[in-house]
């Protein structure tokens, strides 16, 4: 593996951009992220490690890499995670190696992680953008959680309670997308990705020099 580059703050500089997306459960994060991954061929999902049990239909190494808690703890000790957190009683973490491999192969990466994980990425990586997805209201959030039909009523009540605390963190993010109309929210998400790619710092200096016949 090639040596890693770091900025003046000691944060790792990856070859691609990390798009970090967080949201209270039920806001529509999965729906929006899936749509984006399908359309944007340069983007790849960071497949997280987790100690939780696979749900019906989930595939190992595609949705998550499912591991035991002792193995997860070993991975923490070996410094293999770019970030990790305990969410709803289970461990979740992003692999450093996967981030380097994917960006090294020319991809940008979508990270679907919780708020604590996002704050760690902010501290450890230079080229990361933070996007928070909000539902239009608490009432709509409840309707979506009920409509999704994947959670029991007491789980939904707990998620709604958590949502209020989580929403307070929107200020730690760079962009907030309100998922009212799905089409509009998706356009907003695509616009964030596009605007990141158009930043002057993303343009290859050697391409500019060669294309415009400029001396060093
Ligand atoms: P999350 O991943 O944030 O928990 P989901 O993507 O699973 O949320 O969305 C929760 C539910 O709301 C799903 O049933 C989904 O189809 C629905 N949903 C998502 N976005 C919208 C939207 N803009 N309008 C109406 N329903 C939506
Ligand atoms: P679920 O188990 O429902 O797929 O995910 C539960 C929560 O864990 C979601 O909020 C999701 O964003 C978060 N999560 C998934 N993978 C990671 C990860 O690698 N790190 C962190 N910090 N959170 C994660």
Structural class: alpha/beta
Helical content, roughly?
40-55%
The name of the CATH architecture of the domain at 9-45 and 108-211 is: 3-Layer(aba) Sandwich
End-to-end CA span: 30 Å
Describe the 3D structure:
By secondary structure, this protein is of the alpha/beta class. The chain has a domain at 9-45 and 108-211: Rossmann fold. Helices cover 41% and strands 21% of the residues. It has 8 helices and 11 strands. It has a 5-stranded parallel sheet with strand order 4-9-3-10-11, with helices on both faces. A 4-stranded mixed sheet has the order 6-5-8-7. Strand 7 (81-87) and strand 8 form a beta hairpin. Helix 5 packs antiparallel against helix 6. It starts with a strand and ends in a 5-residue tail after the last helix. The mean pLDDT is 94. Adenosine-5'-diphosphate binds at residues 23, 25-31, 144, 147-148, 179, 182, 185.
